[in-house]
Amino acid sequence: MKIMKKIAAVTIAAAALFAFAGCSDDDDPNEMITKVSSKEYTIEYSNESSEISRGYKSTALKHSGGFFVIEIENQKPDQTAADGVMGVIFDLQENSEKKDFYVIGVNYGYNNTKQFGYYASRFRNVTDLQAANFGAGNDHVYDSNDTKALTKFNSDTAPAELVLKKAFTHNDKITPDENGKIKVAIDVSMEGGAYTVKMYKASDLNEKEDGVKDTASHIVKETIPAEITGYTKEEQGKIGFYANVYANKTLKGTWKLPDAQNYIQVVEE
Predict the structure, then answer these.
(1) What is the mean pLDDT, run by run of 10 residues, along the chain of 269 residues?
(2) CA gap 104, 164 in Å, rounded
(3) Cα(56)–Cα(32) distance, rounded to whole angstroms?
(4) Contact 211/64 with Cβ under 8 angstroms?
(5) Torsion over CA of 21, 23, 10 and 202, rounded to 10 degrees?
(6) What's the rounded Cα separation, in Å, for the pair 160 and 133?
(7) Bridge partners of 94?
(8) pTM for this one?
(9) CB atoms within 10 A of CB 139
């Protein structure tokens, strides 16, 4: 099965998996994201304002990556505007003052594209999760041939974003099914301090949908090198979820951690 190294196997008590805490009310005052179980989170939120509404949900689960399945409902193949963004957070490092993390966001139909879109960024020094772009000012775009942006990003003391894949990078391999649902699997793994992010279509998932088929071929592959992560070996960070709901739109969908009991370590808060 093409998923990341499993770091906490069946020795984890099943009851413990259901005992972890979520984020504080301050993180998600809109209460947009609901925990169904340790393996599933949902959103069904109507934004009646003229501004973007934001949701965030951290978990007390820790892993060096993660295997996620995102489903977005009520999508049309020819739609010219997205309802919002559903995203996953990994390598969340936090203390009482700030949060650092990576995000991968997905949607469909953004800016008249009529296509699936995604982006990836790293954020540092985040203090306000409800702020536009997590409060980050001028973003820095990573370029392996020019390290100036990375150097500036690492030296910032204010909230900052390092763009790893611009919003939104489009892909025509994922389209709504007959029920209007978009489904994408995101596999984040780490080796030698570097992350590899792969995305798969719904048809690539195995029967239990807790990984992909041996014959699956990724539709997206991105690498986050060790020079960005600052790691030299496999490290673990918290995982979480976030959403943006655009003005006067309704966003309905599900995040799944289908194999959580096998490869995610419970963190005691």
Answers:
(1) 36 32 54 91 96 90 89 95 96 92 96 92 94 87 92 94 94 94 96 96 92 94 96 92 96 91 53
(2) 10
(3) 8
(4) no
(5) 140
(6) 9
(7) 99
(8) 0.87
(9) 17
